[in-house]
Amino acid sequence: MLIGADWVEAASGRRFEARNPATGTLLATLPEGDAEDVDRAVAAARAALDGSWSKAKPDERQAALLRLADLVDTNYDELAWLDTLDMGGPISRTRLGRKRMVGLLRFYAGQATALTGETIENSVPGAVLTFTAREPVGVVGAIIPWNAPLGMSVLKVGPALATGCAIVLKPAEDASLSPLRFAELVLEAGVPPGVVNVVTGFGRTAGAAIAAHPGIDKVAFTGSHVTGQEIVRLSAANLKRLSLELGGKSANIVFADADLDAAVPGAAMAAFANSGQVCSAGTRLFVERSIYDDVVARVAAFGAALKVGDGADPQTQLGPLISARQLERVASYLDIGAAEGAHAVSGGARLTDGAYAKGFYVPPTVFSGVEDRMRIAQEEIFGPVLCVIPFDGEAEVIARANASMFGLGAGVWTRDVGRALRVARAMKAGSVWANCYQLMDPAVSFGGYRMSGYGRESGARHLDEYLSTKSVWINAG
Ligand code: NAI
Ligand code: MG
User: Fold this and answer.
1) How far away, in angstroms, is 219 Cα from ligand 2 center?
2) Span 376-420, pLDDT tens digits
3) Most exposed: 70, 117, 193, 357, by fewest CB within 10 Å?
4) Which among 288, 294, 260, 283 has a CA at the least distance from the CA of 398?
């Protein structure tokens, strides 16, 4: 792992394994960082912040980000393969991330020279000027999940570099390889040592040490809402700034007037992409009753036709789940759905034949006969499991779609543009997609309502999460 300029072992000397979830193959062993390593990384980050990095001009930070973007571009195939091998995402999918990764870094590069404060007309007597200065929040602790290791690293390191913060990044224990390679590229791009540090290790040890550390000013977290709540508690000692990108149970609504040739694949991939391991996956599919049976059959057929397997095969469309633990979790929901009275129209059980036995495979599963109250309709499963639920009217479906503790994404499919707009405005969710799903862009904010978290990532607002605002009063009278 990377602390300052050095690639180091954990203070304890302990290591843990990185395995390929498609095959069980051992890929590497990694230092098992813990509180002492986090201490060292925070000290390195603080020293970098107080050293030359605090004097780096916006155009220097911009140039470093642009060099990093170029390096990610040049080395992209390797980064995509690391994610395929380490977290199971099919190479057919991870390969497609180049434009987004490079684009995000170039967007943050642009933002580095676009940070502004304001001058404020005050009403105090005399010639007193007030302006605001935007300052880096300081040392950022970033804790990321395994479902998009490279993308999450970019989304944490990019804004830190743009704003002049220093960062201690803890990858997920199940997918640390691309974050480590990315950190090598950060150094190669000429970012001073200590600005970006990577501590590999487990959540309850290294992650908790970051969340509680008095020398860390802000935590940027992506992961489950349960761990998010724990981070809020742990961060209270020094009242860290927090941004939390948490889970979801996003509603996707198909009206009878929709173009089903677009809505069916759209709704299927909203739930099945990345084997369902997407925070904003559209896992509650509400379908107008007159087309319910038709859509259930077509979505199930679409899912059943997807090629599930080892992501290293370029033909593979859906890879394995990340781990035995996640397989167990998803499989338990398949049982819960059956016990609650839902019907698995396709999928419904783990794949174990032949080569599947070596990995953690669940086929795309479509449940019909789902009722709102069921656990499979309320809880985040994080596997390729789609619950299809009938509805009768617009006002009714809006209320039911919003009856969730989460609020990350929402989708609506209709040819009626007025209805699309009404539903989009009514959804209690941070992103709403009409006649599309999961579109993202570096310039557009992403984040949650309710228990899907707070704070926004990507877009110009993202930088606010990494900045403090200081009001300065100058009595010039
Ligand atoms: P998690 O939220 O526990 O893990 C995410 C990150 O948090 C990892 O780096 C982990 O090491 C760290 N972490 C864990 N416990 C921590 C603690 N006490 N203090 C500080 N950091 C800690 O997610 P996990 O356990 O891998 O997956 C469980 C479920 O969480 C999934 O089934 C899924 O429903 C949800 N999840 C949601 C994600 C999202 O993007 N919405 C991403 C990953 C998981
Ligand atoms: Mg792995």
Assistant:
1) 24
2) 999 999 999 999 999 999 999 999 999 999 999 999 999 999 999
3) 357
4) 288
